[in-house]
Design a protein that fits this description.
β1 (5-12), α1 and β2 (39-46) form a beta-alpha-beta unit. It contains five helices and eight strands, in the order βαβαββββαβαβα. The chain has helices spanning 22-33, 50-64, 121-128, 147-158, 177-198; strands at 5-12, 39-46, 68-74, 81-84, 86-88, 114-116, 137-140, 163-168.
């Protein structure tokens, strides 16, 4: 019997000025590194399309029943690897790769305005910043009201907040794909450690 826990890590396809999306490059490097023998790591490239995200994420959560889902996106403004604490339900008026945005401009009808991850990103950031990877980490509470935020909120809603989002800088700004892959590995392993510690303490995330 396979007792491995499944972790899903996603990156995005190219969009706009990002002809090579650093998020998917970083996730591919993470796939090479792995998360250890006890974790089945599944990576997926996600289209920069609202409808595709709304169709894909429910099937991922239902089919694989992951211990954790970590979505990774690129931010042209980022100078560090940024851990997003929460996702937002409203404000989606930017067109996606299919020139579409939701008529309602929201993720989930009648969903809460904001959902926080069950993972304390400040604690994750503090711990991985001591890892001497040569990569700086920071925390944010605004994932940008585009496909990154839309994906994050949707997964938080579907997965009982057992989800995280990580923004990475564009390649070449400060780091290589290999650097970002190692940073993701450290972040995801720390998140898994925290989830394990929380399991018997009844800790949970909150709406914000």
């Amino acid at each position: 019997m396979d007792t491995k826990k499944t972790v899903i890590v996603t990156g995005f396809e190219p969009f706009g000025e990002h002809k090579v999306n650093a998020s998917w490059s970083a996730v591919q490097e993470l796939e090479k590194l792995g998360l250890g023998e006890d974790i089945h790591l599944l990576v997926k490239e996600i289209p920069v399309e609202y409808k595709a995200v709304s169709e894909l994420l429910p099937s991922l959560w239902k089919q694989y029943k992951p211990e954790l889902v970590v979505h990774v996106g690129v931010s042209g403004m980022a100078t560090s690897v940024t851990l997003e604490q929460c996702g937002h339900n409203h404000g989606y008026n930017r067109l996606d790769n299919c020139n579409f945005c939701p008529y309602s401009q929201c993720c989930i009808d009648q969903g809460p305005d904001c959902i926080m991850s069950v993972i304390d990103m400040d604690s994750v950031c503090k711990n991985v910043n001591t890892s001497r990877l040569g990569v700086a980490f920071s925390v944010s509470k605004d994932a940008g009201r585009y496909l990154c935020d839309y994906t994050y909120y949707t997964s938080l809603y579907l997965g009982n907040r057992r989800c995280a989002f990580v923004h990475v800088p564009p390649l070449g700004k400060r780091h290589t794909a290999e650097d970002l892959g190692r940073a993701l590995q450290a972040v995801v392993l720390e998140m898994l450690r925290m989830l394990k510690d929380q399991r018997n303490h009844g800790q949970d995330g909150n709406h914000c």
